[in-house]
């Protein structure tokens, strides 16, 4: 899209403002799927008009005006006397929605239609809609990245290593499902919002997790994907300022992303925590993360799962070295995390912390409980950790078998190289 100054402007504005535009159009029309189509039509018109006539003074307002005029045309086609048409047309002149026409740069429409206070509600409503529990998780992720993040189907497909038609099908099915379920476009009432906020946060968490530790491909970190999740988390923290979990999620992202610069070497190879140059950690991100964590604590609601993970990330961020990290505190926090959000991954991470605080033997006992339960059977994480512990206990042959298993299960090229190097070092 961005090969001309006008097109570059379209791409930039769309990335920043698409959620507000789709949200506003959904509010005007009451039809989310149609609103997305209208926004896309406005985007297509901008791609023709802006390179030719220049970027309007209020680009987002221009897109919204065109989208709304298209909506009015649609209502006119559906019913000339439709009550909704009359309400929407009240502030607009006739004939302004001709394809290819250029809205006046100083038109009153830009000022009349653009209501920043209301738009924030629209973005929040859009996030709750895209992350509605009626949708499967994959569809929530795709729809959120599309309508809230402004990513194209191609970009989402590249991010999750799936074919573009798969992403398009997920988005199409999601919109049909929302329509069939008659999910309204609205910010849920406070009680419903609290109930559905975890779904929204969970989707953003999934996006960041995939960006922070890519499950496949040849990159260890998908900075673009993680960055998009950080942006969404900042939006959420601003829109639901009384949510400890929203601030906790943002804190976790900031503190985790702070280590990105040191997690890979010049060739993109992974750099383990004990070998990272901590001078390369992003100190500004650490300060932002700690500030977000403090805000989460000040809500008075107690830290949830994301906040506790942020506390662990903070322990790493402030430690001068691996040896001087407060591993005892990390163990305690993992124990708390395991009580409110139990999962095999939490148990495995707790085992790693136990190995650093108390030694490999008690940690191996915890890992073996996971093995006995059949947990994480398809993940390379468990054999990787078990192999590390066995090496520290001098059980080299068993460690080799674990790492060979981890190599077979590992879908990320960079991580597989690290495992193969460890195997080679065993001799």
Model description:
This protein is mostly helical and 427 residues long. The chain has two domains: 119-351, no CATH class; 352-426, Serine Threonine Protein Phosphatase 5, Tetratricopeptide repeat (Alpha Horseshoe). Helix content is 71%, strand content 0%. The chain is built from 21 helices and no strands. The protein has helices spanning 5-29, 32-53, 59-78, 83-89, 108-113, 116-130, 137-148, 153-160, 164-180, 190-212, 223-239, 244-257, 260-263, 283-298, 305-318, 327-340, 344-358, 360-373, 381-392, 396-409, 413-426. Helix 1 (5-29) crosses helix 6 (116-130), helix 6 (116-130) runs antiparallel to helix 7 and helix 20 (396-409) runs antiparallel to helix 21. It is elongated. 42% of the residues are buried. Keywords: DNA-binding, Sigma factor, Transcription, Transcription regulation. InterPro entries: DUF6596, RNA_pol_sigma70_r2, RNA_pol_sigma70_r4_t2, RNA_pol_sigma_r2, RNA_pol_sigma_r3/r4-like, WH-like_DNA-bd_sf. One of its GO terms (biological process) is DNA-templated transcription initiation. Pfam families: DUF6596, Sigma70_r2, Sigma70_r4_2. Belongs to the sigma-70 factor family. ECF subfamily.
Fold blueprint:
Elements lengths: L4 H25 L2 H22 L5 H20 L4 H7 L18 H6 L2 H15 L6 H12 L4 H8 L3 H17 L9 H23 L10 H17 L4 H14 L2 H4 L19 H16 L6 H14 L8 H14 L3 H15 L1 H14 L7 H12 L3 H14 L3 H14 L1
